[in-house]
Amino acid sequence: MRLINLMAKIKDTIDTNKIDIKKLFEKYDKNNKGKLSIKEFVNLFKELNVQKLDGKDIEYLLICLDTNKDGELLYKEFLALLE
Q: Is this structure's pTM higher than 0.90?
């Protein structure tokens, strides 16, 4: 339930602000490897400024979305936020 609520908040913020997901991801993928490190993921969410989303929520999201468990978030894993 927590994951669904967090994802809904993020999707709402993205939709409300008409954010281009691909451009947002690429902006924080500093080494152009097609994935975000934990630091890059945290910085991305700081920019999104999702209401009532704290560091523990962001860490929880990364753990849940990192399906291959490599500690980084692939673009396809990131897209799961919007499903």
A: no
